[in-house]
Design goal:
By secondary structure, this protein is mostly helical. It contains 20 helices and no strands.
């Protein structure tokens, strides 16, 4: 079930909200949590009920391992139990996400012809797997404990974060569910929650999905791209991904606030970053936190000399890339970012400062170019776009770039301009608006923190919500659901 769907907005969310707080009102908090767990499992099973047993088994196994880790004293916790738990999670993720990738590469290297398994990737497996690995490590270190299977299941499946994050820690979630002050209707949470939710919906349907039209045209439908077409294609995807992930994050945090639950911030104006380290402090923040705390630091971080630091960065971002997808383009994208972080450390050691605008421009263009590998279906497609960006295919306009998009011109009602030129003009306008929103405006979290319930904001929420719901004619999946 998608956040940007009639089923979720008009039926699932109101029903789940109403029953949850009805149970709280008649002093049945345990039943309320059971209901929320059941609703979250229903939410997950809506996409493909065949995968519902998978997440249930994953929860049960991790709960049992977690129990074994929390019931022994700190000095008596066997690392073998933790290792088995982590191996189970990685094995599950590896089978569903990487089995065919492994077989493809094995066949290419060895010349064998092992048949591919053609496994369907369960939605959210990357997220609920990492959430549970973090829980097991925290349990081993004495930072988390949970003796109630319902509470643990709710921690893993709470529907706002289930399919695309944020990646959660037990200690930042479960105390909120057991806090009596959060077990009753609270308009100080509900109002900003609705505000954030519908801002996210507007980003998805009015901005991200429009950028997707041009990005898909350039990446998927054209054999060659000229200089201008290639740059417009890459920038369209750069902004599509930004607004798509930002939209999901807003809707996840806003949806959780309706239940008086604060999810961790996961996205904070990453295109305002002035260097690549700053970018990763703003983009997919909980994923960065996971790899920092459970991979980079355990490997030694930056404590074992410069050479080891660079190796650790490359190794961690190799895994970051592989986590995003079973493909060499994802791996290369991750290695690009790891190398950029290593170069950033070297540059900092020289103590040379660049002008602010130049720092931003270099960072933004690196991120934009690296996204080409993230989006491309394979190396050939990535090279197609990159060759176009260098001017290899010329500097004119083929006209094919705007084929099939003439209906977009009607939105602007451009008069006196040819249809092809109108589409290009419309894209330029969208890119300019997207750039200003990303780099000049306050982000959604900042707006939500300064939100005040009043008549004007109530009207704004209602108008934005109605406009967003009425625009759900082309329901599209959030991009991070694929990872």
């Amino acid at each position: 079930m998608l956040f940007n769907s009639y089923e979720f907005i008009l039926f699932f969310l109101p029903l789940t909200f109403g029953v949850y707080f009805l149970c709280q009102k008649i002093d049945l908090p345990h039943i309320a949590r059971c209901w929320l767990l059941a609703a979250s499992l229903f939410f997950y099973g809506w996409w493909n009920i065949k995968f519902l047993p998978l997440i249930v088994v994953s929860i049960l196994v991790n709960y049992i391992v977690g129990q074994a880790l929390t019931k022994t004293g700190a000095s008596g916790k066997p690392k073998g139990v933790l290792a088995l738990g982590v191996a189970f999670n990685l094995g599950l993720l590896g089978y569903f996400k990487y089995a065919d990738f492994f077989l493809e590469n094995l066949n290419q290297i060895s010349g064998a012809s092992w048949p591919l398994l053609h496994i369907i990737l369960p939605l959210g497996i990357s997220f609920f797997t990492f959430t549970q690995i973090a829980y097991l490590v925290d349990a081993y270190q004495g930072k988390a404990r949970e003796y109630n299977i319902i509470n643990y299941g709710l921690f893993v499946t709470f529907f706002p974060h289930l399919l695309a994050g944020p990646i959660l820690h037990h200690k930042e979630m479960m105390p909120q569910f057991s806090d009596p002050s959060r077990q009753k209707l609270n308009y100080e949470y509900i109002a900003p929650g609705l505000y954030l939710f519908f801002i996210g919906l507007a980003k998805k349907v009015f901005i991200a999905d429009f950028f997707a039209i041009w990005a898909n045209q350039g990446f998927d439908d054209m054999a060659l791209l000229t200089f201008g077409e290639a740059w417009l294609t890459s920038l369209a995807y750069t902004f599509q991904l930004y607004f798509d992930f930002s939209a999901y994050t807003d809707m996840a945090i806003g949806g959780a606030l309706l239940f008086n639950i604060k999810l961790p911030i996961n996205f904070f104006s990453p295109y305002k970053a002035l260097n690549i380290q700053d970018f990763w402090r703003r983009w997919h923040m909980t994923l960065g936190r996971f790899f920092r705390d459970y991979v980079y630091f355990p490997w030694g971080g930056s404590r074992k000399g410069a050479a080891r630091t660079y190796i650790n960065l490359l190794g961690a971002f190799f895994l970051v890339g592989l986590w995003h997808g079973a493909g060499w383009t994802f791996v290369f994208w991750g290695l690009l970012h790891g190398a950029a972080l290593a170069l950033h450390r070297i540059w900092k050691s020289l103590d040379v400062k660049l002008p602010v605008f130049l720092s931003w421009l270099l960072t933004f263009n690196f991120v934009n170019i690296a996204w080409v590998f993230f989006r491309a279906e394979g190396c050939d497609e990535a090279l197609k776009v990159l060759r176009g960006m260098t001017g290899y295919n010329g500097f004119g306009w083929s006209g094919e770039f705007t084929a099939g998009m003439d209906w977009l011109v009607n939105i602007m009602q451009i008069s006196g301009i040819g249809e092809s030129q109108g589409n290009i003009l419309l894209l330029f306008i969208y890119l300019l608006i997207g750039l200003l929103i990303c780099t000049v405006c306050r982000n959604s979290i900042q707006k939500q923190e300064g939100f005040r319930p009043n008549g004007a904001n109530a009207i704004f929420i209602v108008v934005l919500g109605i406009a967003g719901i009425l625009s759900l004619t082309r329901i599209t999946q959030f991009l991070y659901f694929n990872f």
